Amino acid sequence: MFETVTVNDVPEGAAILDVREDDEFTLGRAAGARHIPLGQLPDRLEELDPDTDYYVICRTGGRSARAADFMVARGYSAFNVAGGSGAWLEAEKPMEADGGAEPRVK
């Protein structure tokens, strides 16, 4: 079973895994987040380090909950970020977007 944390509980410098689709990710994401869309996670799980604590984020928390559950069931350490990227933006946490655009959440 995975644990759900708030955006304020994500430690500074944490490994953030964004499981949204490509178009969502390019518009705005937590600064430094790694991107593996949820649908690709089963095929790309080996790209992740099982000894790292991953804070999994999506738009609102649904996809990240599924991803965290999938990861934990396979021996990885994953936390679901409640409220997702929307909550991250509202909390004024560091964000970035492709091309230097103003980050936004779709």
TrEMBL record:
One of its GO terms (molecular function) is transferase activity. Residues 10-97 form the Rhodanese domain. InterPro entries: GlpE_sulfurtransferase (IPR050229), Rhodanese-like_dom (IPR001763), Rhodanese-like_dom_sf (IPR036873). Pfam families: Rhodanese (PF00581). Keywords: Transferase. The keyword DNA damage does not apply. The keyword Transferase applies. This is Rhodanese-related sulfurtransferase.
